[in-house]
Automatic annotation (TrEMBL):
Taxonomic source organism: Sphaerotilus mobilis
Signal peptide positions (record): none
Domain EAL as annotated: residue spans: 24-278
Protein name as it appears in the record: PAS domain S-box-containing protein/diguanylate cyclase (GGDEF)-like protein
Lineage: superkingdom: Bacteria
Amino acid sequence: QAKRAGRGTYRYYTEALTAAAQNKLTLDTRLRRALEQREFELYYQPLYRIADRRLIGLEALVRLNQPGLPPVGPADFIPVLEENGQITALGAWVTQEACRQGRAWLDEGLDFGRIAINLSPQEVRRGQTDERVRAALQASGLPADRLELEITESGLMEQGERAEAFLHNLRSIGVQLAIDDFGTGYSSLAYLKRFPVSKLKIDRGFVRDLPGDVSDAQLVQTMISMGRNLGISVVAEGVETEAQLDYLHELGCESAQGYLFSKPRPASEARAWLPRLAEAPSLKADSEGEPA
Ligand code: C2E
Ligand code: MG
Ligand code: MG
Ligand code: MG
């Protein structure tokens, strides 16, 4: 086909390919510099319980903010780091930084529920993640039950027994495991039994067309009842409207995250959402029975 289209098309493809290669080179160089000079930043997006709109957690999402250069999102640069093997270097920094920030907020008397960080499949596969998470917890002094790891279904499915063992180990010290983009991966549901899953995050692709789309509504309902039956909490991602939120509440969905509440924000702005530790009555109520 390209041949029949002639020389002009051929040249077009060559130029496009060269531009793509150069862009990738530039991004590669930028990423190397960013890792060396610590130019990444963590933004935080809040998760709320729908019933009383209480903040239950923050998801840490990495940003690349290099002065004078156009911003690039993680959807574009994470795959490059996964390809060149540097994702573990970024992951190490993300883990340390999220733990440090969480501890700092606790020291200021601020509550955030849990901080969730995203792990790439590669990070699960390469053995050091277990030690790295433990080391970050220990160095920061963040209690282990304040940390949650988000992994996609495909990420878990690609992994063997080694991941199973280390996730159970981390769970035994209190670290939580959330399934990210739930419903989009290639998977057998057997992994819900195999891995110590504490949360399902319904992919925003299923939420977008609620409440109108009947088949999305049915799928979401199924995911919610599955979570409930298994004793796993369920969060809807990408909630942008009150209508979606109301409908999710009707379906029995526990919590939600999305632009309706807030986009991801830098730590300095995220702190404005955080209640004081002393004023978190329901945390106390959970662990100490009836509040006074
Ligand atoms: P994710 O973990 O599924 O994160 C949710 C993404 O949806 C975030 O995009 C977030 O900004 C976006 N989002 C949240 N609410 C809404 C909404 O209401 N509407 C819409 N349209 N989007 C919403 P972001 O920050 O660009 O991150 C993209 C992906 O990059 C993440 O998807 C995650 O897979 C990956 N990622 C981000 N940070 C890290 C990290 O530190 N490590 C690794 N390995 N991956 C990361
Ligand atoms: Mg996530
Ligand atoms: Mg997600
Ligand atoms: Mg995703």
